[in-house]
Amino acid sequence: MNNTTINNQENLSIAIIPARSGSKRIKNKNIKFFFGHPIIKYPIYEAKLTKLFKEIIVSTDSLKIKKIALKYGASVPFLRSKNLSNDFTPIYKVLLNTLSFIKKKKSLPKYFCLIYATAFSISKNDIIKSYKILKRNRKSEAICSVCKYYLPVQRAFKINNKNFLEYINPKYCLKRSQDLDEAYYDSAQFVWFNTRSFLKKKGRNLKILPFVLCSDKIQDIDNLHDWKLAKKKYKYI
User: Fold this and answer.
1) Assigned CATH for 7-150+181-234
2) Structural contact between residues 217 and 233, judged by C-beta atoms closer than 8 angstroms
3) What pLDDT score does 12 carry?
4) Where would I find the H helices in the chain?
5) In 3D, which of 128, 129, 131 has the Cα closest to residue 140?
C-alpha cells in the first residue's frame, strides 16, 4: 500500500459496474431490455445524475456490452479477461482488477462505488446520501445498501434427506420473533468503499455501515421469476 497514491479530491470518485457476458439463467441479463432500454442503462443513468463520479467504469468481457455502456455514457477502458468472467469469480477480484488498471494510468480516488448492472430501481439520492454517511463516519470503511428480512431467518427450515422439514438452528425454534435479532441482506444495489481500506484488506473483513432500503422496490435478479417480479415492482416505483 505504501506505493499506492490515493487522490483525496472528493469529486474524483469513480463507479464500477461489473457486467460480464455469459449469464446462464437469463441470457444476456445485463443488457436485456427492461421497459424499452437495456437494464444496465438504469444504473449508469442514475450514477451520472449524482455528479459524484469522474468516471463510471463498466467492467466487462463483452464487446456488445461495451458498445451499449458507451452509448449511455459509461467508460469501458479495457475488456476483462475470461478468467475473471466466469460463474465463480468473486466480485472483489473484479474490483481489484479495475482498480489495478486505473492505478497504472492515474491516481486512485479516496472512495469508489460498486454499482450492480441490474439495479433497475437504484436512486441517485440513495447513492448521494450513503456517500455522505460514509464520509462522516471515520471508523467505517464501506457502506452497503441492504434490505431487512421480514421474517426471522433464525427459525428457517431446511428439507432433510428424508424429505422432512427440520430447523436449521433448532435452538431458536421456541423463541419469539421479537426476541430475535433483525437480519438484513445485500440488496444488490450499491456498495461504497474507502479505497485504501479495500485494497489493504482485499475487500474482506471491512467495517461496513448499513444503508437500509425498502424491499418493496428492490429485486435482485438471478432468474426469470426474479425478472418478472422486477418488472412488477418497477411499475409502482
Assistant:
1) 3.90.550.10
2) yes
3) 75
4) 41-50, 63-71, 91-105, 124-136, 195-201, 224-234
5) 131
Question: How many whole angstroms separate alpha carbon 15 and alpha carbon 24?
Answer: 26
165, 179, 216 from 187: Cα distances, Å: 28, 24, 11
Look at residue 137 and give its three-state secondary structure.
Answer: coil
Report the amino acid identity of residue 79. L
pLDDT at 221 over 80: yes
What are the φ and ψ backbone dihedral angles of 224, each rounded to 5 degrees? -65, -30
pLDDT recorded at residue 8? 47
Please state, in angstroms and rounded to a whole number, the distance separating the CA atoms of residues 234 and 217: 7
**3-state SS class at 111:** strand
CB atoms within 10 A of CB 56: 24
The number of beta carbons lying within 10 Å of the beta carbon of residue 28 is 15
Where along the chain do its domains lie? 7-150+181-234
C-alpha cell at 218: 428492490
Which three three-digit cell numbers place residue 13? 470518485
Sign, CA dihedral 219-223-225-231, equals: positive
* pLDDT value of position 22: 84
